[in-house]
Design goal:
Chain lengths: 122, 266
């Protein structure tokens, strides 16, 4: 019964990659007996993935805050330096690159699918 | 170890139709049945799922699609069985009774999440209006150059953080008491960001979702100008599959199997 004056925003599902990671890495059934398989790679990887995503989120917030500032008196050199540091976290696509990168650092089963799938997010 | 490893998405009742999507690593979905329950799975040729955005989305999508058509107990991302034999023989067979009962518990239930944020600087304005100490600090800081007020600014920040914590707690209780009555269970979640006021998941009977939404609309109307609400879902029961039966309203208090909190030892 949504009305036009409603102040409730609606989303069918958690949609940002960070929200989805939070959901499916933290929630749901786990079977002890099978975690050993995961422990070989996935457990470690998911933790890394989360760290990457978390810091990206922070970077984005910083970046946004920085953007909102009135920078007319700041020299451009400082801004350039900052944007280089933030370049890993500019967008979700970048996040995925970082996640894949983490994966390849830990596993050696090739980067075969990573490029094919890099556009697969919805 | 025989046969390929299997990546697991969810436990569902036996005989259900497969969701019309592909799984992790673009593998077709399979249903491995055992008595009244089945595991929704797909082959994982290398016994290691890469943590990519694509695979994370695939896991989410399979569980969501399944939840649309049947009772679905989602697995966490990255749970892998080493073979079909071990999945069916040692896991499903051993826990068939528990999982079947749990599927029955969750039949026709869905999850919605509610989050609320303080609108604009509503929270800060409220804090300033209600705390004389905060007003005093604020005026004192405002009158002098920043370099001279370092410690006062820290004290001001601490005062704001403390006030915000109290305000949040009160608002969370307000939200919870209006929404809880429409749900079978509530789980408070971590709120995010400095303007976050409230975040919780609700386990709701599917035919009571409209009632829940009305309750939320009413709450939002009461809090207009202060709190902005977001409703996510209905979605799979991510926040409730780990819950003990005794936490669910309206269910007999039976002993739970396994080591509780959704972990089944085998």
């Amino acid at each position: 019964m949504a009305t036009t004056t409603s102040s409730v925003t609606r989303a069918p599902r958690p949609s940002s990659l960070a929200d989805v990671l939070d959901l499916i890495l933290d929630k749901g059934l786990v079977i002890d007996a099978y975690v050993r398989v995961s422990a070989l790679g996935i457990e470690v990887l998911t933790i890394d993935a989360r760290i990457v995503v978390a810091s990206v989120d922070t970077y984005l917030r910083f970046a946004e805050a920085v953007n909102r500032l009135d920078l007319t008196t700041t020299e451009t050199q400082g801004i350039k330096g900052l944007s280089r540091d933030l370049s890993r976290g500019g967008a979700e696509g970048k996040t995925e690159g970082a996640v894949e990168g983490t994966k390849e650092a830990v596993h050696d089963d090739g980067g075969r699918g990573s490029r094919e799938r890099s556009g697969a997010r919805s | 170890m025989t046969g390929p490893a299997l990546y697991l998405y969810a436990i569902v009742p036996t005989g259900v139709r497969l969701p019309g999507v592909v799984g992790v690593s673009e593998q077709p979905l399979r249903l491995l049945e055992c008595g009244r329950i089945a595991a929704l799975a797909s082959a994982l040729p290398k016994a290691a799922a890469r943590v990519s955005a694509g695979n994370v989305r695939a896991h989410q999508q399979v569980v969501e699609e399944s939840h649309l058509s049947t009772t679905t107990l989602p697995f966490r991302f990255g749970v892998v069985a080493d073979s079909e034999e071990s999945l069916v023989g040692s896991f499903l067979a051993r826990h068939e009774a528990t999982l079947a009962r749990r599927l029955a518990d969750f039949e026709d239930l869905t999850e919605v999440r509610v989050s609320a944020r303080y609108a604009g600087d509503a929270a800060l304005r409220e804090l300033v209006a209600t705390s004389a100490r905060l007003r005093r600090l604020r005026e004192s800081v405002a009158r002098r150059p920043a370099a001279a007020t370092y410690y006062e600014r820290i004290a001001l920040g601490e005062e704001v953080a403390g006030g915000l914590a109290v305000l949040r707690e009160r608002d969370a209780d307000t939200c919870s008491s209006s929404l809880e009555r429409h749900a079978r269970a509530e789980r408070r979640l971590r709120h995010s960001g400095e303007d976050g006021a409230f975040h919780a998941a609700y386990l709701v009977e599917q035919d009571r979702v409209p009632g829940f939404e009305q309750g939320l609309e009413q709450l939002a109307a009461e809090q207009r100008g202060r709190l902005e609400f977001e409703l996510t879902g209905p979605m799979p029961l991510w926040d409730f599959v780990e819950m003990d039966r005794k936490d669910l309203k309206g269910l007999p208090d039976l002993a739970t199997a396994g080591r509780g909190r959704g972990r089944w030892a085998s």
